[in-house]
């Protein structure tokens, strides 16, 4: 703490700052002295904690008042004038170590009280700061000073600085003064002779001072590279007052209790704008940006990003009990937004931000704060909304019901009604947590004792032409099914039956425990390899983990204290990471880091997370834990338990015609009378916040986690330790970029392998659920019970689609939500009979032919590179080096596939005796996916084969036939044969099928020759069970039967264009045998190849006999999904490499040739498809190029879709220390990536159509009581219900394509993107012509053919 020196120091200070001597009392000084005095007051105002109250208590000219308001000079750094004068003196500068620090008695006691910050200010920066501050004060307070000067004659006397002891500054070298930089050698100034003698005679005092200096040096150095604050001017119209004292019962963070509180001045002053001379004024700079379309879009992006950051930050401030920090933050950005002329003030500071703070203060009953915030809301011209009045009533409800309290409540009830808000609207539309609803209702009942809120019931039905007929099953809210006069069989509940309420509640409790723990640890199926010292390593690892936990806990406390000291006395309430980090206890951070240590140590040699990825992952884990803790604290956990218990009642009874969403909505509505709201929006932390929080933990991981290099030595001496960092970083090429990656120390990895823990840990939101998932009732609530599940898989910068979803009618989203709920409501089991066979193959080293990954150790060793002395040519050495790189790449690929199989099989083994559910979400096009990534029915042949339905149903009359037909379909041997011929073939090979089931690994292994070997084996096992049962029709089967679309993308194109030839080739029309489009394309390519070979083309001759269906199948399949020629060439080259007889030297020339011929053949076969695809591409090119907007559309089921492809500049992240950066990338304000937009639109639109077809089929199957599961265009059901599935699948395809899909798309795009007449300049410019071309193209629909869609209803092989 600086000690003020005595009177004679003033002359030295005046000399340094070139100021005239102080005038006598009552006399006014020169303007320069007045400016300096104002600067002193401004500086004191910024850093003081408690406002002076002397002026209000008496005469301001008293000595006491003079003492309180006296300013002091904080720096001995010379001004710019002195610096120039000193530089003229040709004295030699001293070395860099000749710097100094002025330390005036800094002790630990005073440091803890004040936490004063000593900054390094060079002379130039300081002088510029002083001049800028003086100018601002002059401009903003000129009028007040002129009016107040006459009445405050004695004020100038009070503003004179305290005089210091005279110090001969000439003794000091000028270079020291000019440098103004601190060094490790402090120069200590003492105030009084007595004190000097005391310190000299007591070395302990001297040591305390030096110790204090060293304690603060780290803080000083950490701020060396901090960006200089440029927002001082924004707050020049505000004063800093002390925060009001909290109630005695309120526990506040020490940092929060000393937080400066900012209050606005009563009279804002006008800003003096300098006049510009037209002759010398600079021309406006041209806007240049590769990301944003124009300056307006860039400004809107910044405003939106700031608003999102403020919303998140204020929510965290309230949850962390840092209300004053939140208040000062909103004041700071409010002032900045007001002073920024270009910024739309009301788009940044909204009533929603104030409502967050109001709810925080309401929970403490601080109505005084409300009054202050109301003044600000009025100044900002904002209006109260329902949430504002709810906070008011809550705050008043927490106060004693005095007469004044009742009067205030009555006034605000009347005010709300005058503003058009009834009490029912306030209670219905507001969001509540904990007991807020009950407290607000209690306040209202003080005035209206009989009041009971009426809540608006939710809309349950559809608003879509394709689904409106299903609304006849929906009963009004409040009407029980048994009350209705109808004879329903409740078929919709059929797939959900078989579970008692007690069983469901028990499973729900297990699921909640898993989600609260945050992770699940399971046993690995990897073949155990016990090491000799395994037990010793386990003990060492356990001891090491205990030490890590202590080190991490101490490091977190240390770093948080440092960050608190840095942030504590910042003059402005900017957003900082400290607030986010204080939202959780230290124990949570310790758990997160310990789990991350094990995860990193178990990583492979060839892959490691980059530093940026690790920052983001750690930040996401902190956010997930924060959200869980929030739900535990705000009553959501208990409310979910209540509603889910009632939900289990409906599952047990099975007496409901509602789907799962409608059931959940009814239950939520019934429980709205008390407790928290169930539709709370979980505000996700911005990516910059996640990265900053993760960086904080990453620094601890790298700095504080130590490892003894001798830890694995059994005979090491107890005192022999070599502590090294447990993690290090390396740089590795990733494509064209070099990324910094994090690796574990080899000793740590070796220790973990030697301990052989034989366990795997998964996060709770990556594994299946043990109970039925929470239905999606809104875009923000569904899936896991507590864990946050994202409805749509989107990159972080894609916010435009979320905006479209928020602004759309909720009923338009119901079809997509209900389809996700239907898929998630199907219970699953593991096919244990097949799982044991797969695990046996995996543990015995895998099998490449059976698609069971092999470990990297199975690779043959690579020959070592010859030494430099060996006589080897450069070409040979380069070839060997490339072989080594290829070997390492193959090794990494094998390890990745092996780990994926290990995770999948270990999870399947863990759930082998359990029933589980798979929550679903979708991508931006509407395609659905299971949320758990490892164990699901989506993926490879091995992944699909392991799962069966939990509910068993009798096969019935035709079930066994469908089972045999499914087995033959999986083999791929009879694709061109009819159904009858396939069934006859199944009977012929029944002995092989039974042998495969009985001796899967030791028999003839007929199943291994199949296209889908593991699914074929599973089907063989099921056929064997049915074949040997006494009554096959009564056999209860859990086995799913697949019905797969015949090149589904081309089917949608043919239906859109009513293309007869194309429709026939993809089985939209009836035929005696299935039409194979892949074989047809291969025949066309072969015909062209023969002609080219006859003409002497060598590549065509080399391909003789190799133009096969399998070679071009993937290319034909993916053509409609936007595969490029380069991608198609890679696909064909991969197939040619797998043919042993094909000459390897011809792989690349032949793949290029086949790619060209395949594309030409497709365009020849599908004329209408080509025209529609070209129209899609041209529309997207013009929309993204001319309009500079993302392409968007609405699916036939009402889901808004926006393509999230934008230009993104790769900018180096600016690290701002503990301050949260405000910039965010958002697609709705950025230039689109034209190439991606135009190439992706055709396949994305077709994907949205096939997802719409799937959803329609899903909802109609659910209504009829069928078990339905989809893998995109492959539909699964029980064998006994395949005919019903086929009928509904065809009916919904016809219904979907009977809609004017292309016409609706054209109308929507014209409404969104077409230009009006006044937008044309008629000057013949390129821009003008492009606009006209856009308008023409959007209207020019492709011509359609004469194909009758009703033919699909009779097509056997449409889905088969």
From TrEMBL:
Enzyme class name: transferase
GO BP, sorted A to Z: DNA biosynthetic process; mitochondrial transcription
Known function: DNA-dependent RNA polymerase catalyzes the transcription of mitochondrial DNA into RNA using the four ribonucleoside triphosphates as substrates. Component of the mitochondrial transcription initiation complex, composed at least of TFB2M, TFAM and POLRMT that is required for basal transcription of mitochondrial DNA. In this complex, TFAM recruits POLRMT to a specific promoter whereas TFB2M induces structural changes in POLRMT to enable promoter opening and trapping of the DNA non-template strand. Has DNA primase activity.
GN (gene name): LOC115630408
Subunit-level organization: Homodimer. Component of the mitochondrial transcription initiation complex, composed at least of TFB2M, TFAM and POLRMT. In this complex TFAM recruits POLRMT to the promoter whereas TFB2M induces structural changes in POLRMT to enable promoter opening and trapping of the DNA non-template strand. Upon metabolic stress, forms a complex composed of FOXO3, SIRT3 and mitochondrial RNA polymerase POLRMT; the complex is recruited to mtDNA in a SIRT3-dependent manner. Also forms a complex composed of FOXO3, SIRT3, TFAM and POLRMT.
Gene Ontology molecular function terms on file: DNA-directed RNA polymerase activity; mitochondrial promoter sequence-specific DNA binding
A single GO cellular-component term on record: mitochondrial DNA-directed RNA polymerase complex
Protein name, entry field: DNA-directed RNA polymerase
Sequence ranges assigned to domain DNA-directed RNA polymerase N-terminal in this UniProt record: 509-825
PPR repeat boundaries on the chain: 350-384
Region (Disordered): 270-295, 851-874
């Amino acid at each position: 703490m600086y000690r003020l020196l005595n009177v004679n120091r003033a002359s030295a200070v005046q000399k340094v700052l070139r100021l005239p001597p102080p005038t006598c009392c009552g006399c006014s000084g020169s303007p320069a002295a007045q400016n300096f005095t104002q600067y002193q007051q401004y500086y004191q105002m910024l850093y003081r904690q408690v406002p002076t109250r002397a002026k209000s208590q008496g005469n301001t000219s008293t000595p006491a008042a003079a003492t309180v308001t006296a300013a002091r000079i904080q720096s001995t750094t010379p001004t710019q004038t002195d610096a120039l004068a000193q530089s003229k003196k040709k004295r030699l500068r001293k070395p860099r170590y000749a710097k100094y620090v002025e330390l005036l008695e800094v002790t630990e006691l005073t440091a803890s009280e004040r936490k004063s910050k000593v900054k390094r200010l060079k002379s130039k920066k300081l002088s510029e700061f002083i001049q800028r501050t003086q100018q601002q004060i002059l401009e903003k307070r000129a009028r007040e000073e002129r009016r107040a000067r006459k009445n405050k004659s004695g004020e100038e006397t009070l503003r004179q600085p305290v005089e210091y002891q005279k110090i001969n500054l000439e003794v000091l070298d000028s270079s020291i003064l000019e440098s103004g930089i601190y060094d490790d050698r402090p120069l200590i100034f003492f105030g009084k002779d007595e004190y000097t003698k005391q310190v000299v005679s007591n070395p302990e005092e001297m040591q305390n001072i030096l110790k204090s200096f060293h304690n603060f040096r780290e803080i000083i150095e950490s701020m060396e590279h901090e960006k200089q604050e440029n927002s001082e001017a924004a707050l020049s119209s505000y004063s800093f007052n002390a925060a009001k004292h909290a109630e005695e019962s309120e526990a506040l963070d020490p940092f929060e209790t000393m937080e400066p509180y900012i209050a606005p001045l009563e009279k804002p002053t006008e800003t003096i704008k300098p006049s510009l001379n037209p002759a010398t004024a600079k021309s406006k700079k041209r806007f240049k940006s590769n990301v944003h379309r124009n300056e307006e879009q860039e400004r809107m992006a910044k405003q939106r990003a700031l608003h999102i950051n403020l919303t998140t930050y204020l929510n965290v401030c309230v949850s962390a009990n840092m209300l004053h920090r939140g208040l000062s933050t909103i004041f700071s950005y409010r002032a900045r937004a007001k002073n920024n002329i270009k910024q739309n003030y009301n788009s940044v500071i909204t009533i929603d931000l104030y409502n967050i703070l109001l709810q925080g203060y309401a929970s403490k009953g601080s109505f005084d704060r409300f009054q202050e915030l109301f003044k600000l809301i009025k100044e900002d011209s904002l209006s109260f909304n329902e949430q504002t009045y709810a906070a008011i009533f809550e705050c008043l409800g927490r106060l004693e019901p005095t007469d004044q309290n009742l009067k205030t409540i009555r006034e605000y009830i009347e005010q709300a009604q005058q503003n058009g808000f009834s009490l029912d609207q306030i209670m219905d539309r507001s969001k509540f947590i904990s007991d807020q609803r009950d407290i607000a209702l209690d306040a209202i009942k003080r005035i209206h004792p009989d009041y009971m809120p009426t809540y608006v019931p939710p809309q349950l039905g559809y608003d879509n032409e394709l689904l409106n007929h299903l609304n006849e099953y929906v009963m009004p809210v409040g009407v029980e099914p048994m009350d209705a006069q109808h004879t329903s069989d409740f078929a919709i509940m059929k797939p959900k039956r078989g579970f008692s309420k007690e069983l469901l509640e028990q499973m729900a409790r297990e699921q909640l425990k898993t989600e609260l723990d945050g992770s699940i640890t399971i046993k690995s199926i990897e073949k155990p390899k016990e090491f000799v010292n395994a037990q010793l390593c386990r003990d060492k690892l356990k001891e090491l983990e205990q030490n890590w936990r202590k080190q991490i806990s101490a490091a977190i406390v240390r770093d948080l204290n440092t960050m608190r000291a840095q942030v504590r006395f910042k003059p402005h309430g900017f957003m900082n990471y400290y607030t986010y980090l204080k939202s959780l206890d230290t124990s949570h951070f310790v758990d997160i880091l310990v789990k991350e240590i094990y995860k990193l140590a178990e990583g492979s040699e060839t892959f490691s997370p980059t530093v940026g990825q690790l920052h983001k992952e750690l930040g996401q884990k902190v956010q997930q834990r924060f959200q869980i803790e929030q739900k535990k604290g705000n009553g959501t956990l208990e409310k979910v338990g209540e509603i889910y218990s009632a939900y289990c009642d409906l599952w047990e009874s099975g007496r409901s015609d509602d789907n799962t969403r409608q059931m959940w909505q009814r239950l939520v509505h019934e429980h709205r009378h008390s407790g928290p709201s169930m539709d709370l929006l979980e505000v996700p932390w911005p990516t910059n916040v996640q990265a900053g929080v993760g960086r904080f933990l990453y620094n601890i991981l790298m700095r504080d986690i130590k490892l003894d290099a001798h830890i694995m030595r059994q005979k090491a001496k107890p005192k022999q330790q070599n502590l090294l960092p447990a993690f290090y970083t390396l740089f590795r090429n990733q494509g064209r970029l070099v990324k910094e990656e994090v690796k574990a120390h080899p000793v740590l990895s070796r220790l973990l392998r030697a301990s052989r823990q034989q366990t795997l840990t998964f996060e709770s939101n990556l594994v299946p659920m043990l109970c039925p998932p929470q239905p999606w009732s809104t875009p923000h609530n569904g899936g896991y019970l507590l864990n946050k599940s994202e409805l749509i898989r989107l990159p972080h910068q894609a916010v435009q689609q979320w905006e479209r979803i928020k602004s759309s009618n909720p009923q338009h989203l119901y079809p997509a939500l209900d389809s996700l709920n239907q898929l998630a409501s199907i219970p699953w089991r593991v096919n244990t009979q097949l799982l044991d066979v797969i695990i046996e193959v995996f543990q015995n080293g895998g099998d490449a032919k059976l698609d069971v990954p092999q470990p990297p150790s199975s690779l043959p060793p690579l020959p070592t590179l010859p030494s430099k002395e060996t006589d080897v040519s450069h070409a040979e050495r380069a070839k060997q080096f490339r072989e080594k790189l290829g070997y390492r790449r193959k090794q990494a690929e094998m390890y990745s596939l092996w780990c994926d199989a290990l995770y999948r099989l270990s999870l399947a083994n863990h759930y082998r005796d359990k029933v589980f559910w798979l929550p679903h979400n979708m991508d931006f096009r509407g395609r659905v996916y299971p949320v758990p990534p490892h164990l699901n029915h989506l993926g490879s042949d091995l992944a699909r084969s392991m799962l069966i339905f939990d509910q068993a149903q009798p096969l019935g009359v035709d079930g066994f036939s469908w089972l045999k037909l499914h087995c033959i379909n999986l083999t791929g041997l009879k694709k061109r044969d009819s159904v009858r011929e396939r069934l006859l073939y199944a009977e012929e090979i029944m002995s092989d099928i039974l042998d495969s089931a009985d001796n899967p690994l030791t028999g003839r292994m007929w199943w291994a020759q199949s296209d889908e070997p593991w699914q074929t084996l599973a089907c063989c096992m099921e056929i064997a069970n049915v074949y040997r049962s006494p009554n096959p029709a009564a056999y209860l089967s859990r086995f799913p039967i697949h019905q797969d679309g015949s090149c589904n993308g081309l089917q949608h194109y043919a239906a859109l264009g009513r293309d007869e030839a194309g429709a026939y080739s993809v089985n939209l029309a009836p035929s005696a045998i299935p039409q194979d489009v892949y074989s047809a394309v291969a025949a066309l390519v072969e015909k062209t190849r023969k002609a080219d070979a006859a003409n002497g083309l060598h590549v065509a001759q080399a391909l003789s006999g190799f133009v096969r269906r399998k070679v071009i199948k993937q290319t034909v399949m993916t053509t409609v999904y936007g595969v490029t020629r380069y991608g198609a060439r890679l696909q064909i080259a991969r197939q040619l490499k797998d043919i042993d007889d094909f000459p390897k030297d011809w792989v690349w020339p032949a793949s290029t040739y086949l790619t060209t011929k395949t594309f030409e053949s497709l365009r020849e076969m599908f004329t209408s498809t080509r025209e529609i695809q070209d129209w899609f591409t041209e529309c997207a090119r013009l929309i993204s190029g001319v309009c500079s907007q993302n392409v968007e559309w609405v699916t036939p089921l009402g889901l808004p879709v926006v393509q999230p492809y934008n230009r993104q500049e790769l900018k180096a992240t600016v690290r701002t220390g503990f301050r949260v950066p405000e910039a965010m990338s958002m697609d709705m304000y950025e230039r689109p990536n034209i190439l991606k937009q135009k190439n992706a639109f055709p396949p994305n639109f077709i994907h949205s159509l096939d997802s719409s077809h799937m959803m329609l089929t899903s909802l109609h199957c659910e209504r009829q009581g069928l078990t339905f599961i989809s893998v995109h265009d492959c539909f699964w059901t029980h064998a006994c219900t395949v005919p019903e599935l086929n009928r509904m699948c065809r009916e919904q395809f016809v219904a979907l394509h009977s809609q004017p899909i292309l016409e609706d798309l054209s109308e929507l795009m014209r409404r969104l993107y077409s230009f009006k007449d006044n937008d044309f300049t008629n000057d013949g410019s390129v821009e003008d012509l492009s606009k006209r071309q856009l308008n023409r193209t959007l209207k020019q629909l492709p011509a359609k053919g004469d194909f009758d869609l009703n033919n699909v209803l009779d097509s056997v092989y449409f889905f088969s």
